[in-house]
Amino acid sequence: MSVAGDGGAGQTLIRIRNLSKAYVRGEQFIPVLQGLDLDVRRAEFVALMGPSGSGKSTLLNLVAGIDKPSGGSIIVGGVDIATLSEGALADWRAAHVGFIFQFYNLMPVLTAFENVELPLLLTTLSRRERKAHVAAALDMVRLTDRVDHYPNELSGGQQQRVAIARALVTDPTLIVADEPTGDLDRVTGGEVLDLLDDLHRQLGKTIVMVTHDPKAAGRAERMVHLEKGVLVPDPAPGAV
Amino acid sequence: MFVLKLLLKNAFRHRLRTLLTMVGMIVAVCAFGLLRTIIDAWYAGAEGTSSTRLVTRNAISLTFVLPLNYADRVRRVEGVTGVSWSNWFGGVYITERNFFPQFAVEPASYLALYPEYILPEAEKKAFLLDRQGAVVGRKLANQYGWKVGDQIPLRGTIFPGTWTFTLRGIWDGVDARTDEAQMLFHWKLLSENLRARGGQNADHVGVYIVGIDEPNNAPLISQRIDAQFKNSLAETLTETEKAFQLGFVSMSEAILVAVNAVSYVIIVIIMAVMANTMMMTARERLAEYATLKALGFPPAFVVKLLFGESLVIALGGGILGMLLTLPLAAAFAKAVGTLFPVFVVSDTTMLLQLAASVTVGAIAAAWPAWKMSRIDIVNGLRHVG
Ligand SMILES: Nc1ncnc2c1ncn2[C@@H]1O[C@H](COP(=O)(O)OP(=O)(O)OP(=O)(O)O)[C@@H](O)[C@H]1O
Ligand SMILES: [Mg+2]
Fold this sequence. Notes:
The complex is a heterodimer. By secondary structure, chain A is an alpha/beta fold. Helix content of chain A is 32%, strand content 27%. Chain A has helices at residues 56-64, 86-96, 112-117, 127-140, 156-168, 186-203, 214-218; strands at 12-25, 28-41, 45-49, 71-76, 79-80, 97-100, 174-178, 206-210, 222-227, 230-232. The longest helix of chain A has 18 residues, at 186-203. In chain B, strands 1, 3, 4, 5, 6, 7, 8, 9, 11 and 12 form a 10-stranded mixed sheet that branches. A two-stranded antiparallel sheet of chain B has the order 2-10. Chain B starts with a helix and ends with a helix.
C-alpha cells in the first residue's frame, strides 16, 4: 500500500488546493465549498468539525474519492484524484481508502466475517490469505466471537466494529469516517473511538473523521473547523 | 464463489416476494408449454404421416367420391407400390360426445400401407377373416375399456342404422406420434349394405391411399395418377398424406394463430411482473450498491449481482414450471380423451420454455442493472437509515 512520496510521519499525504464544490439545482447554484486549502500529514488523525450543512461530508467524500470537485486539486500520495477516471478512481479507493459510515453500511445478507472479507475480493489474495487477513482484522476490533453473526444479530457498536475491521482489512493508507459515533451511545461510541485511536497509534493510519461531538474530536491530533464551506481558524477551547 | 453466494442470499431475502414471483413464473411457463403442446397436437396428424404415402381424392372436394375401378389403374402407375381405400363412416358410439374417427377400409392393403400400426399376427388374421370385425388403436380401447371380442355398436349418421362390430384387434403405435385413436373396419361391409339398399354409391370410395417407392418422386407420381383421370367424370387430386392432413389443420389455422399469440403474451406479462419486482428490489438496496461502489467494486459487479439474482428466480420458477408441464399435459390428455390422438410435450417445447425463462430473467434485470450500475455513490449512501 505504498503511496508516492514515501516517508514517515510528518510528510504530507493529502494536499488540497483551491478546492471548490457547488451543486446546480435547476436555476439555483449552490456553492458548498469555496477555495479551500488543507494539508493532512501522513499518519495524522484529523477531526473535521462544523455546523450542520457546512460541507463536512462533502469535503470528506471528495477526499475519499467518491465525489468529484467542481474545481481545484486533491493530491493524495502524489496522485491528483480529481483527474482520475471513474474506473481508475474505483481502483484507487479499493487500494488506498477505508470507509467508516455513520450507519455502518454492512451487507445484511453477509455474516460479520464475510462483510470484512468483501473488500479483499478486489485483491489478488488467495482464499487462505483472505481468511487470515479477515481473522486478524476481527481480532483487532475484538469481535472474534461474533464472526458468524449477521448484522441484524449485532448491536450498533458491534456493527461499527465490523465496519472498522472492513475498513482496515485491506491495509489502506487513509481511513475516512463520517460521524462514526453519531448513532451510538457515549460508552459504545467511546469504544469505537478507542479503536480509531489504535488504528492511528499502532498501525499508523491517516484518519480523517467528521464529528459533531467535541469529545470525539478531542481524541484527534488536530481539529479543523469548517463554516459555510471555508476553513476557519481553531477557536479557543471552550468557545465552540 | 462469493458472488454466487451473495446473489443467492439476495434472491431469497424476501422469501414471500421471491416465492410469489416464482409461482408466477411456474404458472406462466406451464401455461406456455401446455398451449404449445395443444398447437403441436393439432398438427400431430400431419407430423405422424409417412412420406411414402399419397392420398388421392376427388378433385372437386372431399365430399365427392371416386369409382372403385380406379384402384387398378392407380396400381399400374409407375412408382406405385400399393393401393388401398377408405370411407369416412362418422358413426356415434352411445352419445355424440364420444367422438372418434371410424374408417371403412380395404383391410389387407390398408394394414400393409400402415406398418406403424403394430397388430399381433393372430388378431390381424382374425380381423381379416371377420366381415363384421373391427380393429382400434390402444388409446381408444383404453378410453372405453374395450377388449378383443367385445361388441361395439355404432349408430350411423351418414349411413343409417345401428352397426355392430366385433373387436378383433388392438394396435399399438410404433412411436408416440402414431395415431392410436381410430377404428377401422371392412369396406366390403359398408359397400354390401349400400348395395342392399339400392344405393348408387356402393362401388365408390372416399379416398385412395397410395404407397410409393421413393418419397422424392411424390410430386411426379401424383401428377401421373391425376393424368390418368384427366377429363374423366371424376377427376382426381393426389397429394402427400402430410399435405392432405394439413388441409384439415388449415381450417382451424386462425384459432392456432391466436393460441400461439396468447402463449407468447403470457411470457411478456410475466416478464413485466418480474421486471417490476426486480426494480423494486434494486431500489431497496440502493445504499448497498452505493456502498459496494464506494469500496471500489466496479459497476459490472452490481450488474452481475442483479442479473444473477434475476436469473436464479426466473430459471428456478421456469424449470419447476417445465417439470410441472409433463404431469399436467398427461392429465390434460386423459381429460380430453381421444380428441387429440397425440398429445406429447415435445423437446422443442421444453427448449422454448427454458429459453423463455432465461429471456424473462435477463430482460427483467436489464433496466435495474443499468440504473444501479450508474447510481451516484454519494446520493446512494444517503438512502441509509
Ligand atoms: N446533491 C445535493 N444537491 C444540492 N445540495 C446539496 C447536495 N448535497 C449536499 N448539498 C448541500 O451541501 C451543503 C453541505 O452538505 P454536507 O452534507 O456536506 O453538510 P455537513 O456539514 O456534512 O452537514 P451534517 O453535519 O448535517 O452532516 C448543504 O447545504 C447541503 O444542502
Ligand atoms: Mg454530514
